[in-house]
Amino acid sequence: MHTFNNIQIYYFSGTGNSLNVATWFHQIAVEKNYTCTIENIAKIDIHSIPKPEIDSLVVFISPVHGFNYPPIMLDFIFHFPKSKNPVVLMNTRAGMLLGKWITPGITGVAFYFSALILLLKGYKIKALLPVDLPSNWISVHPGLNERTITYLHEKNRVKVKSFASKIIFGKTDFKSVREIIQDILISPIAFLYYFVGRFLFAKSYFASNDCDNCGICSKNCPVQAIITIDKRLYWKFSCESCMKCMSNCHTKAIETAHGFVITWLILASIVIGFVFRLFEINIVRINNGFIHFILETGLTLAFLGFGYRLVHYLMRFSFIERLMVYTSLTKNKFWGKRYKALKDKMN
Q1: Which of 63, 197, 259, 270: disulfide with 193, CB 3.0–4.6 Å?
Q2: What is the average pLDDT across 183-189?
Q3: What is the dihedral of CA 297, 303, 307, 309, to 10 degrees?
């Protein structure tokens, strides 16, 4: 039987998938006469998180970014007060559709790393559930069609509600651990994304001249990563690539700079390779592979940051702005369909 009297849900969501999951869980809790709260962690000061009530079930829901929970959720869990409450971990990951078969995403280290932190804080892990809702990452793949989006929502809504009913009645669910082999195999990429990849993606967003400076994207950015420089939107390295800004831009001015990123990374590899050869010829050869990787990565990110700022300045000239726009795949109608979770239709 259950050992809790109320439920506290903490979620992070960019385009609405995790919010939908939180809402579906909440609906079952209310139907079963439980007091249930939903908290958006982006609006909570991580340095003053209230300790959960003694008799609460605590639920964490977040998308998977680079086969791990995004830094905003990891920071929240790391700062979460110590207690002995039962905990449920859920994630939304990149679901696709082949016919009527939902191709599952990959959780990676999201559950294991977070569960370890919470166990060390005294919590009891009761269940883990990945939810394969539509992938929203149109920076790396074409937008999904309406049939796929609707189908994935319908199937996962049933799945989440069934899971919530089971957990509320005190049962456990660790079926996702069956995927541990693929999660372990993908873990190196998860760490590379956390320490390198997310910073590369952060410098891939820009606003075209279609931007009307409404300020909605910067105001609603969960990590305040969007600022205005020289009257044009500018993405800082702290960007989570949650796609909230791109998906909610009413003028569709926000694009991914595919042409710039590819060109600049090729140029960076040439320049940095030359610098290393020059350094090793005249000073000392770097034989340690790890040190070489750290230095090369740091220089690449610095070079990318410099290039991003330079192009941001040059976009005041229409030729450069148009070049950025038309070398972006997200500008293409086939590729760049913006994604929003079907909140109004499904809830």
Answers
A1: 197
A2: 95
A3: 90
Assign residue 230 a region (left: φ > 0; alpha: ψ between -120 and 50; beta: otherwise): left
Q: Which DSSP string corresponds to 257-299?
A: -HHHHHHHHHHHHHHHHHHHHHHHHHT-----HHHHHHHHHHH
For range 60-81, the mean pLDDT: 97
What is the reported pLDDT for 273?
86
- DSSP secondary structure, 27-68, as one string: HHHHHTT-EEEEEEGGGS-GGGPPPPPTTEEEEEEEE-SSSS
Measured CA to CA, the distance from residue 213 to residue 242 in angstroms comes to 20
In a domain, residue 198? The reply is no
Q: What is the CATH number of the domain that holds 277?
A: 3.30.70.20
Angstrom distance (rounded) from CA 1 to CA 169: 6
Predicted confidence (pLDDT) per residue in 275-313, tens digit: 877 776 666 566 667 787 888 899 999 999 999 999 999
Work out whether strand 101-103 and strand 56-63 pair parallel, antiparallel, or are unpaired: unpaired
**214 in a domain, yes or no?**
yes
Distance CA 184, CA 112 (A): 10
* pLDDT mean over 46-51: 94
Average pLDDT value over all residues in the chain: 92
Distance CA 3, CA 86 (A): 8
Q: Which residues 6+ apart lie within 8 Å of 209 measured at CB?
A: 253, 318, 321
87 in the Ramachandran plot: left (φ > 0), alpha (ψ -120 to 50) or beta?
Answer: beta
